[in-house]
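Async update (no meeting this week)

Hi team, since we skipped the sync, here's where things stand on the single-chain job. The sequence we agreed to prioritize is pasted below, unchanged from the tracker. I ran it this morning and attached the output directly underneath so nobody has to dig for it. Comments welcome in thread, and please keep replies under the output.
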Amino acid sequence: MGDPAGIGGELSLRAWHLLRSGPQCFVALDDPDRLASLAATIRCDVPIHVVADAAAAADAFRQALPVLPVRLAARAVPGQPDKANARAVIDSIERAAALALRGAVGGVVTNPINKAALYDSGFAYPGHTEFLAALTGAQGKQIMMLVSPQLRVVPVTVHASLRASLAMLSTEMILVAARTAHTALHRDFGIARPRLAMAGLNPHAGERGALGDEESTIIAPAMAALRADRIDVSGPWPPDTMFTAAARARYDVAICMYHDQGLIPLKTLDMDHGVNVTLGLPIVRTSPDHGTAYDIAGKGVADPTSLIAAIELAASLAERRSAALGSAA
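Output:
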């Protein structure tokens, strides 16, 4: 569902319109009345079909957007988040995770949420990622990867201030992020021998200690341990040069030390096609790489490109993961 006051509903409607004749199929966990009203408001001709379970979605998808109902407590007003609807947002995430855990769906694609609105209702998690980790029994194992056609990045520290991120950065955190990324690239992305590029933390990757020693005291030990595991890792590279086209050709994922170090280059290169993938979960989870966009909600101008990319990537990851599990059996 995402935040009912944001652009998530519009994205779902437009994604169905563009994907209805293709190989992908999805079911929306949302309020069907809200979606029908929104479709009329933005003049998007999308029939809504309420289904009793996810299995019925495939048969309905070519003719209408299948919806598993999650009823809102209050009418959604575009651009005006309402904590009265927080419970419905949370319910939609819980139901989606449950469906994926029991294999009723191939994966979960989440629309953007407003964390502040959920916090006001007592939501105890920093965001989607941490909540899904708790729901799937993978708490503490979740790792965020951002994917676009030009670049993949994994930030070691994520939803924390820059000061807090630098204080918490450790060799063990780098190892967990890198190993999880390596496993996912091999199993879910089909890369036989993933190449990891380690970003330095400081300007010029520390300039041999002149501009900081974290490269030698924190990052280098992690790289040594990864190489002992026969993982292909290079660096630490100066962050200001490792995202050029020539540099990107030499690796499959950049392991970045903090949130903006990885997300700024990825979003600069391709904001529209960026996808957030949660690694380390027993289910496939992707999300568009943007927010609720309250300023344009309800105006019919929201671009569904990132959501479509997230749906297509989720389908691809689910297919590869299923094949890997089948071959292992």
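Quick observations from my side:
The chain has two domains: 1-137, 143-279.
The chain has a mean pLDDT of 93.
Reply here if anything looks off.
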